Amino acid sequence: MDEKRKTSISLPAPAENLCHKHYAFIMANLAFCLRYLRRHQPSRQKLRTHNDGSEGIIIVQVYWDMDTYNSLHSLAFALRWSVSHLIFVMLCLAEDGVLPGAQGLDSADQDPIFSNCDMEVKMWGVSGYIYTEFLLFSSSKPPNTARTKVP
Alpha-carbon distance 119 to 73, whole Å? Predict the structure, then answer.
């Protein structure tokens, strides 16, 4: 497994308890949470959405492996949300019971197969750049492989 790297997110101050209550659930079920939020359409025709700081902001230190970091940034970029706002939306959905079973997902909803995002660069230079970023989801688990005992 990839080593975890320290970064931070900023959340509205009233969300501190939500973070303590639901953050582990969201990280444990990240593939499901991201698939759920893909119901929003990607857009380049709007400004980036950030968390409202009118009631104060708290900074939360988080440790993510690169797969998690890339997955969050990929969806946030497509939706024109900050990663902090993406996490906040997930926390609110878990609190409101919209994400099935913040107490535990039905086994049919659990899918640990989640690939990292990757990018294909078509052109990158002084006159401009063209690239495709992709993030693949899988609904099937890889087949179990039997191990043969060697005497």
Answer: 13
